């Protein structure tokens, strides 16, 4: 029996077990959902894995959020204003907002949340986005005033991230963040069995309005072929997919709909520019020149995406062909290796996670083959996602296959990596005065045309320095049965739209 045959038999068995476990036919008001990669933790301030973010954005809320057009819209805050000098940002909270424990969301909770994010000991994923916050005032329970050390144009956009979620001050004091999930979002976490299932119940007191379903039962299935089998058997209403090889099969199944949306997140080969020989610019550039990005995209993702430079948001995105060595140039790559004294190449290890993205192994294999052409021998080390994330956050790798989240603003997207104060500098492993200067200029510049010029220079310089090799952007995929209505996909890949979903 072939491996493929065994996999499909296993998927059929899973679908059969789901069928047996369901007492009544048809669909209930509870949405039955499936994904293949589970969350790695419950602390919204610290989580970086997409699987964790997708879960937590259903439970927690930030002050504001981004809509499908990447515009800032209210969340816990109903209104906000910048002072004329742009050094004060004031929010008015929704008076109806409550945490899942019944307590009102107050300015004290906002202050405590951001003080926790800014505390280096927390290890908050997006801390660098908020370093302009000098102090926080709470003149009353519904008003929060952020006093800034300097104008910070992208700050409001940065506050739309679930990494800036507002959590109860009492939970911070008791040390329960990450062990319990007390948010203010549309769903409450009733139970979590890691790598098995999550049970979410609708928050009847959600200030954002009536939730369209009673809850969500999420099954963690072994792989996305198993998810497709469960969808075929009509035992799953809705599913998150990441593997284009599976997603492209969905439209071929009667009764299933595929939601396919271009996203800001990007696939990259991350180099450790602090480890020899990648400390040498010529070596990093040789790697960039040796990689055929379109070939990696076509082979690993079936062409489901678009080659990209560092900036992926529509307003600032540049033509990749204008960037350094975005077309494979093997002769240039070999010359650069020779110039670096490495005509015969070198050996290195590339790490990749199982499951996120599902294409990571395939990407690594194609890149391995391409780099061999210039004498670089890559050893591929696959890791479970939680192990990969820990290793990645420590910066303990030669190279890494990565899928990183995109943002609506370039500064918000990259300051944590490419500024001297960035909290993920140890992951980026590279910084120079030009990058840092351009980021600071873009942070304070209010003129859109001038910001575009600044970040175009940033984009060009980063691609030429080649600390990472940007590959492409892809799509977010969700699949649903015909009786699921009103889900709207967004460029950030968010599942927040499930709050408005109905099941017929």
Give a summary of the structure in a few sentences.
It is built from 16 helices and 19 strands.
Overall tally of domains: 3
Q: Look at the structure and give the mean pLDDT.
A: 93
- Total helix count? 16
What is CATH's topology name of the largest domain? Dipeptide-binding Protein, domain 3
Name the CATH superfamily classification of the largest domain.
Answer: Dipeptide-binding Protein, Domain 3
State the distance separating the first and last CA atoms: 41 Å
From the 3D coordinates, which CATH architecture of the largest domain would you assign? Roll
Low-confidence stretches: 1-28
Q: What is the molecular shape?
A: globular
Secondary structural class = alpha+beta
Which CATH class of the largest domain? Alpha Beta
Instruction: Give the strand content.
Output: 15-25%
Provide tags for this entry.
Dipeptide-binding Protein, domain 1; disordered N terminus; 16 helices; 504 residues; alpha+beta; Dipeptide-binding Protein, domain 3; eleven-stranded mixed β-sheet; globular
Walk me through the structure.
There is one protein chain. The chain has helices at 3-21, 50-56, 107-118, 155-158, 169-174, 224-232, 244-247, 281-290, 293-301, 330-339, 360-372, 385-394, 410-418, 425-428, 433-444, 448-465; strands spanning 30-35, 64-66, 72-74, 77-82, 88-93, 133-140, 143-148, 187-193, 197-202, 215-220, 238-241, 256-271, 306-307, 346-353, 376-383, 399-404, 468-481, 484-485, 502-503. By secondary structure, the protein is α+β, with helices and mostly antiparallel strands. It has 3 domains: 3-40 and 50-58 and 185-237 and 483-503, D-Maltodextrin-Binding Protein, domain 2, CATH 3.40.190.10; 64-174, Alpha-Beta Complex (Dipeptide-binding Protein, domain 1), CATH 3.90.76.10; 263-474, Dipeptide-binding Protein, Domain 3 (Dipeptide-binding Protein, domain 3, Roll), CATH 3.10.105.10. The strands form 4 sheets. Strands 1, 8, 9, 10, 11, 12, 13, 14, 15, 16 and 17 form an 11-stranded mixed β-sheet that branches. A 4-stranded antiparallel β-sheet has the order 4-5-7-6, covered by helices on one side. Helix 8 runs antiparallel to helix 10 (330-339) and helix 9 runs antiparallel to helix 11 (360-372). The longest helix is centred in the first third of the chain and has 19 residues, at 3-21. The radius of gyration is 23 Å and the shape is globular. The two termini are 41 Å apart. Mean pLDDT is 93; it is low at 1-28.
């Amino acid at each position: 029996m072939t491996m493929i045959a065994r996999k499909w038999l296993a998927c059929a068995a899973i679908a059969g077990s789901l069928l047996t476990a369901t007492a009544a036919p048809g669909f209930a008001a509870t949405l039955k959902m499936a994904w293949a990669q589970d969350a790695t933790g419950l602390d919204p301030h610290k989580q970086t894995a997409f699987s964790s973010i997708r879960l937590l954005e259903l439970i927690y809320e930030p002050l504001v959020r981004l809509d499908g057009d990447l515009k800032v819209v209210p969340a816990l805050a109903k209104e906000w204003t910048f002072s004329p000098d742009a050094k004060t940002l004031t929010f008015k909270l929704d008076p109806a907002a409550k945490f899942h424990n019944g307590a009102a969301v107050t300015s004290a909770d906002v202050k405590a949340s951001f003080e926790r994010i800014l505390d280096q000991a927390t290890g908050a994923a997006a801390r660098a986005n908020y370093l302009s916050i000098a102090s926080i005032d709470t003149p009353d329970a519904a008003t929060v005033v952020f006093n800034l050390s300097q104008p910070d144009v992208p700050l409001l956009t940065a506050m739309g991230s679930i990494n800036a979620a507002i959590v109860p001050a009492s939970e911070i004091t008791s040390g329960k963040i990450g062990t319990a999930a007390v948010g203010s979002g549309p769903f409450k976490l009733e139970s979590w069995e890691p790598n098995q299932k999550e049970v979410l119940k609708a928050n009847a007191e959600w200030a954002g309005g009536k939730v369209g379903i009673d809850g969500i039962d999420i099954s963690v299935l072994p792989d996305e072929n198993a998810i497709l089998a469960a969808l075929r058997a009509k035992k799953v209403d809705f599913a998150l997919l990441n593997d284009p090889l599976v997603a492209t099969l969905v439209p071929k199944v009667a009764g299933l709909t595929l939601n396919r949306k271009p996203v800001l997140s990007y696939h990259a080969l991350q180099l450790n520019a602090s480890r020899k020989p990648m400390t040498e610019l010529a070596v990093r550039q040789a790697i960039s020149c040796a990689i055929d990005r379109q070939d990696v995209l076509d082979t690993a993702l079936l062409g489901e995406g678009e080659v990209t430079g560092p900036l992926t948001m529509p307003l600032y995105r540049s033509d990749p062909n204008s960037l350094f060595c975005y077309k494979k140039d093997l002769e240039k790559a070999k010359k650069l290796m020779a110039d670096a004294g490495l005509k015969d190449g070198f050996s290195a290890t590339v790490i990749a996670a199982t499951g996120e993205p599902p294409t990571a192994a395939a990407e690594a294999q194609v890149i391995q083959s391409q780099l061999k052409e210039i004498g670089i021998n890559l050893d591929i080390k696959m890791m479970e996602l939680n192990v990969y994330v820990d290793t990645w956050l420590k910066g303990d790798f030669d190279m890494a296959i990565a899928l990183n989240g995109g943002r609506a603003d370039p500064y918000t997207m990259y300051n944590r990596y490419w500024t001297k104060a960035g909290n993920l500098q140890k992951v980026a492993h590279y910084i120079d005065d030009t990058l840092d200067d351009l980021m600071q200029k873009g942070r304070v510049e209010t003129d859109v045309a001038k910001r575009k010029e600044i970040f175009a220079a940033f984009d060009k310089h980063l691609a030429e320095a080649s600390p990472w090799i940007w590959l492409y952007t892809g799509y977010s995929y969700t699949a649903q049965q015909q009786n699921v209505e009103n889900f709207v996909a967004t460029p950030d890949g968010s599942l927040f739209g499930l709050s408005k979903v109905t099941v017929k």
